[in-house]
Design a protein that fits this description.
mainly beta; 8 strands; four-stranded antiparallel β-sheet; elongated; single chain; Thrombin, subunit H; 2 helices
Length: 184
């Protein structure tokens, strides 16, 4: 079967920056919905009409990947609002109560710096502003089930920074942020 809109592909990849530094490796195949919200548009476009066993290599400029770096998504927040065991690189779904009320609540924030009195949180994707080279291997292709197409996602969070509902909000069945501290 060839990859088309509204199908599911099982992929592995190696992701590098333009200098060749390895940024991420997905060794075990993960399924993504083509024609939904799981993959970046340029990746979907490059995968179309390929089959299981094919490899695809492409370069993604920031605007086609994770966007330009936006310094308006940096927030300096009081250290006492965060857990004692806070470490650089930790992620938070939204900001804790008492943080900047103008900060978007539907983002995943990463701790970029820790000071005695303050914490710097970054709402940019960790790969924002970086041109990327990705080598994809297609392991399997199947028709998408009606329920998968209806949700628009298989729930794979690598390419999205949306988070689940905040306290008091109703859950939707949209994409969720990855639960681990890795990129996939």
């Amino acid at each position: 079967m060839k990859i088309n809109q509204q199908c599911v592909v099982a992929l592995t990849w190696t992701l590098k920056d333009t200098l060749g530094e390895e940024l991420d490796v997905l060794d075990e195949p993960v399924e993504f919905l083509v024609g939904g919200n799981d993959l970046l548009a340029k990746i979907e476009e490059a995968l179309l009409n390929h089959s299981a066993g094919d490899t695809v290599e492409l370069q993604l400029e920031p605007m086609d990947a994770f966007g330009d770096y936006d310094d308006r998504l940096l927030f300096l927040e009081p250290r006492n609002l965060f857990p004692e065991n806070l470490e650089e690189g930790m992620g938070f779904e939204g900001l804790p109560a008492g943080c900047n009320p103008s900060a978007p609540r539907d983002r995943l924030y990463f701790v970029s710096d820790i000071y005695p009195e303050h914490v710097v949180l970054d709402g940019n994707h960790p790969l924002a502003g970086i041109a990327l080279r990705i080598a994809l291997k297609v392991h399997a292709v199947r028709e998408a089930e009606e329920s998968e197409v209806g949700r628009g996602t298989l729930g794979t969070g690598f390419f999205r920074m949306e988070v689940g509902p905040q306290d008091g909000e109703e859950p939707d069945d949209g994409p969720q942020a990855p639960g681990s501290r890795t990129l996939h």
